[in-house]
Design a protein that fits this description.
With 305 residues, the protein is of the alpha/beta class. It has one domain: Divalent-metal-dependent TIM barrel enzymes (TIM Barrel, Alpha-Beta Barrel), CATH 3.20.20.150. The chain contains twelve helices and nine strands. Helix 6 packs parallel to helix 7 and helix 7 packs across helix 8. It is globular.
Length: 305
């Protein structure tokens, strides 16, 4: 499942949803006694529990909090109505949940490529960063996902990396005064994507040399592209600011594929990671049963102490 599919499914389907029906729930601070106390900040997304919680985004966030989830992420946040963004931010604050990443609108992916070194691509990226600042303020976000785009095949890889570094430095100048961090995500979606490995992403972050440019280590993508998950996370740890989850094959919840998530989570916990682990994956089963299976899988894999 590609990122664009996540954004379309979680953002466009709820973009026009009214929030009035959830005002009373959103204005109440409560922590159910039966909620699970997770060791790490796993972050579900809109649509993951729609059968159990209903279609309303505010109801879904409250349901996540009721289950014990301490964070939330929303790739398509920038595409949502401003009023809904504000209400989501208020609800997260009242439920004590950390806002995870959203994707910088037109900030990269395959819509433009920063590796080309072209002004028009840089302008698109920087405009996305400026808009992202406003969105981040509404929802109290700290991190936003950036993918530098595709290869520029007629340029040497070193020149492409330098072009990406220069563009990201410009983006960091916009974000750094606001305490915001763009997290660069190497992907496995296409061989045409410029950013493919944690090693390359580490090099670029060192080149940018800013607290506003760090690594988003997506375990699903990196299992496909390079493997040796714990080894490579350890090598690049000082630049990792955000982690995402998905089992392989299938890109569904932990326990459905080949990754030993209990060991990975245990290692991350031992490293003292207090950031967000985004649940950027699908559900292996449909309906309420499938949604409960996701919750149960996280409880099972989180039981590492």
């Amino acid at each position: 499942m590609k990122r664009r599919s996540f954004i379309q499914k979680t953002a466009l389907s709820t973009g026009a949803f009214t929030v009035g029906s959830s005002l009373m729930q959103a204005n109440t601070i409560y922590s159910p006694k039966n909620s699970y106390n997770f060791n790490l900040k796993y972050a579900p997304h809109i649509g993951m529990f729609k059968n159990l919680a209903g279609d309303n985004p505010i109801d879904q966030i409250n349901f996540m909090a009721d289950q014990g989830f301490k964070a939330f992420e929303d790739n398509g946040m920038m595409k949502r109505d401003v009023a809904l963004q504000e209400k989501m931010g208020e609800t997260l604050a009242k439920r004590g949940m950390t806002m995870g990443v959203f994707v910088v609108d037109k900030g990269g992916n395959m819509e433009n490529t920063l590796a080309a070194g072209k002004q028009e691509h840089l302008d698109i990226f920087l405009n996305g960063c400026r808009k992202a600042v406003d969105t981040a303020k509404r929802v109290n976000a700290k991190w936003m996902t950036v993918v530098p785009g595709g290869y520029e095949r007629n340029l040497p890889i070193g020149i492409q990396n330098a072009n990406v570094i220069e563009a990201l430095r410009r983006g960091a100048e916009i974000l750094e005064p606001h305490g915001l961090t763009m997290v660069l995500e190497p992907l496995s979606d296409s061989p045409d994507l410029h950013l493919q490995t944690s090693e390359q992403t580490y090099l670029i972050c060192k080149g940018v040399n800013s607290p506003s440019c760090k690594i988003l280590y997506d375990i699903y993508h990196m299992q496909k592209n390079e493997g040796h998950l714990i080894h490579n996370m350890n090598l690049t740890w000082d630049e990792i600011a955000y982690i995402q989850i998905g089992d392989n094959p299938g890109r569904n919840e932990p326990t459905t594929g080949e990754i030993n998530y209990r060991n990975v989570f245990k290692w991350i916990h031992k490293k003292g990671f207090d950031g967000v682990l985004g649940m950027e994956h699908g559900n292996s089963k449909d309906g309420k049963e499938g949604e409960q299976a996701v919750i149960n899988a996280y409880k099972h894999e989180d039981d590492f102490l």
